[in-house]
Write a structure and sequence with these properties.
The protein is about 30% helix and about 30% strand. It is of the alpha+beta class. Strand 4 and strand 5 form a beta hairpin. The longest helix is centred in the middle third of the chain and has 17 residues.
Length: about 140
């Protein structure tokens, strides 16, 4: 795959926990079809955390966005809550905490991550994103 190829996909998702699985499987298909199988496992983990946060902590619609540009894969989740995400927190006892690990995993596994306020289809919200750099 040429490093200079640019592509982007967006998946609108309802506020439904099943959207997490749909997003993860859609991402796997996208990356496989573009020859980026080496990024699939980590990308799936990151997308799962971002989409799960969007669905779990908001009441409105959400969206998954996947973008490839110059050897960098950006995965992001938009949700309808304009409040910033809670800072990543490491659990006090590994394996004990049931919640609050999502952004800590994103921080640990992504090359870069962040968030920004965003308006989508007239709705205020935020966009939480992370990037993976291709090892190719």
């Amino acid at each position: 795959m040429p490093e200079t190829e640019l592509w982007e996909y967006s998946l609108s998702i309802p506020n439904d926990v099943r959207a997490v699985t749909v997003s993860r499987r859609t991402l796997r298909l996208i990356l496989t079809m573009h020859g980026l199988i080496g990024l699939v496992d980590t990308a799936e983990l990151l997308a799962t955390e971002l989409v799960a946060n969007a669905v779990r902590h908001t009441k409105g619609p959400a969206a998954l966005r996947v973008r490839w540009s110059a050897g960098v894969l950006r995965i992001g989740a938009w949700d309808a809550d304009p409040e910033p995400p809670a800072p990543p927190q490491e659990p006090a006892t590994p394996g004990v905490a049931e919640e609050g690990r999502g952004l800590a995993l994103v921080r640990a596994c992504a090359d870069l991550w962040g968030w920004q306020p965003l308006t989508r289809d007239g709705n205020r919200g935020k966009y939480v994103w992370c990037e993976l750099t291709s090892a190719a």
